[in-house]
Amino acid sequence: MGTRSSLVGGTFYAANQVLGALSENAFAQLAPHLHKVAFKKGASLWSPSSPSGSIFFPLSGLISIVRMDTEGRGIEVGFAGRESAVGFSTDELTRGTVQVAGISLQVLKDRFWALASEHAELRTLAACCQDWMLVQSRVLAACNAVHDVQARLCRWMLQISDRTGAEIPSTQDEIAQLLGVRRTTLTLVAHKLQDDQAIRYRRGLIMVQDRAHLRTLTCDCYHDMAALPLPCERMEGLALHQHAAAELIEASGHNAGVGRHILGTKNTSS
Ligand SMILES: [Zn+2]
Fold it and tell me: Tens of pLDDT along 160-170?
C-alpha cells in the first residue's frame, strides 16, 4: 500500500502526460491500481505468443511496437513515450519492446476497463491513446513504403530524441530492423550524417548533435506527426466537447432551447 498512497499523494505520475491530464477525482480512482515498474532496454512487454494483461503508462523511456517478420525481425509500427500509454486492446499481432529503458506505471487491463466502465474520463484517455497509435501506424506504414532511408532515419532519431533526449541507446543493427532496411544501407547513411556532424555514433549510442539539420533532411511524416495534438491535448478537446454536449442536453431538458447555447446569447427566460 505504500506505493499506492505515494501515487495518490505525489505528482510524479504526471510525468506521464495522459495521467497528468486526468482530473484529481479520475486519477484517484485509478491510482490504487497503478504499480511502478522499471524496464530495461530490450524487455518484451507482450508478444503474439505471450499477450500482456497490463496497460503501460511510461514516465520515462520509450516503448516500441513492432510487427515481426518470419525471420524474427521487428519493424516498428508505433511507439509510446510519456506522452501516451499502450496496451488497451488485446493485440495478438505485434510485440511491445522497451527501446529506451525507463519507468512505467502499470495497471491490469481488466481492472482498468472495469474502472473505465464507470468513469468517462478513463474511457476518453483510452480512446485518445488508441487514436494516437492508429495515426502513428498509418503514417509509419506509408513512410516505410515510400520515403528513403535517410529521411526515415532522421525521422526516427528526431522522434526518439523528442521523447528521451539527445542520446539514443541503439545499435545500427537495431535501427535497421526497426526501419525495415538493410544494415549496410543504414550504415552508409549514418556515416554520412556523422560526416555532416548531425550525429555522433559510438558503441551503441547515437548522440543527436544538430537537430536543425536533421529536420531539413527528414520527411513530412516527422513534421506532420509533430504538429498533431498530443493525446493529453485530445483529452482536453474531447472533455470540452462532452461538456458542451452535456450543456446542450441540459438546456433542451429545461425547455430553454438549444440555439441560445450555440449562439452564446444570454439566458433571459425561464
Ligand atoms: Zn516519411
Answer: 999 999 999 99
